[in-house]
Amino acid sequence: MATYAGEKADNLQAALESVYTQTLLPRECVLVVDGRIGEEQEKVIAHYQASNACRLVVVRRRNQGGLARALNDGLQYCTGYLVARMDSDDICLPHRFETQARAFAEQGSLDASFSWHAEFEQDPGAITCVKRSPETHEEISQGMKWHCVLSHPTMMVRRRALTAIGGYRSCFGNLEDYDLYVRLLQAGARMETVQEALLLFRTSMAQRVRRGGLRYAVNEWAFRVWCWRSGFLTNSEFLATASLQIGFRLTPPGLKRMLYRLVRTPTEAQAMARIHTAMIQPKRLAPDGADAL
C-alpha cells in the first residue's frame, strides 16, 4: 500500500483497519509513504505501528515519485511468498486474504489472483456498482488485449513472479498496472479471478472522467505499440484496440460517463446484502499458513 500527501487520514485508517481485521492476518503490512504527509496521517500510522496484530513496515520516500516507484520500493520489504495489493483509500472485506490464499493453496500453478470489486463514493455502505472481471486464465488473456479487465487493488501475486519481471514500470504513465499484467502473462504467469467482490473501491465519476485527454492518449498509443512489438497483439488487434482506446481517451466527458457505466454492473440488492453481512463483526482466525502473506 502507498499513501501520499493528498490522502485523507480517515481513508488511510479505514484501509489499514480492513487489513488488521482480516480472518487471515498477513505477516506484515508494508506501507510506502510517498513524500511528506500531514500530521493526521502520521497519527494513524503511529497507531497501527503500536498494534500487536500485524507488523506495520513503513517505507519513506523523501520526494513523491508516483505509484510505480513507490510500489517497487515497498516490494523490497515484502518477505512473504504472496503479496497482496490495495490502495490507501480502499477497504478489504474481512475474508479477502483468506479467500485468495486458499486459491493458491488449492492450485499450485496459480501465480496471481484477483477478484471483483464493489464501488462507492463517500459511504462504504452505499455501493453504486460492481466491477466484474473474467474468471479463467484464458478469458483474462483474451480480455486484456482489448482493455484492462483486472482490478489492481484486488491483486494477490507470488512475489517471485513480480521480481522475475522487474516489478512495475512507469514508462506508460498511469498504465503501470495494465503494463504489469501483460508482462506477467508474457512471462507465463497463470491468473484467475475470484467471482465475488472482495474489496470496496473508493471512486467517483469525476475521477474517472479525468482519465483522458491528450497525455493519456499518447501513453495509450505508446503502450499499444509496445504490446504489438512484443508480440502480445497481432497487427489487426493492434489497429483495432489502439483506435478504440485512443478514441476513448479523447472522448468528451459526457459520453465517457456513459461508456464507464456500460462496463460496470449495477448492484443488486442481494449482492449488496452479502457485502454488508461480510463487513459486520469479522471473526479473526489463525489458520495454518497464516504467515504466508
Automatic annotation (TrEMBL):
Claim: Hydrolase is one of the keywords in the record: no
Class of the enzyme per the UniProt entry, highest EC level: transferase
Q: What InterPro entries does this protein map onto? A: Glyco_trans_2-like (IPR001173), Glycosyltransf_2 (IPR050834), Nucleotide-diphossugar_trans (IPR029044)
Q: Which Pfam family is one of those matched by this entry?
A: Glycos_transf_2
UniProt keyword annotations, A-Z: Glycosyltransferase, Plasmid, Transferase
- Please list the residue ranges annotated as the Glycosyltransferase 2-like domain: 7-161
EC numbers, comma separated: 2.4.-.-
Could you state a single Gene Ontology molecular function term?
A: glycosyltransferase activity
Q: Which family does it belong to?
A: Belongs to the glycosyltransferase 2 family.
* Name of the molecule in the record: Glycosyltransferase
Q: Please name the taxonomic classification of the source.
A: Bacteria, Pseudomonadati, Pseudomonadota, Alphaproteobacteria, Rhodospirillales
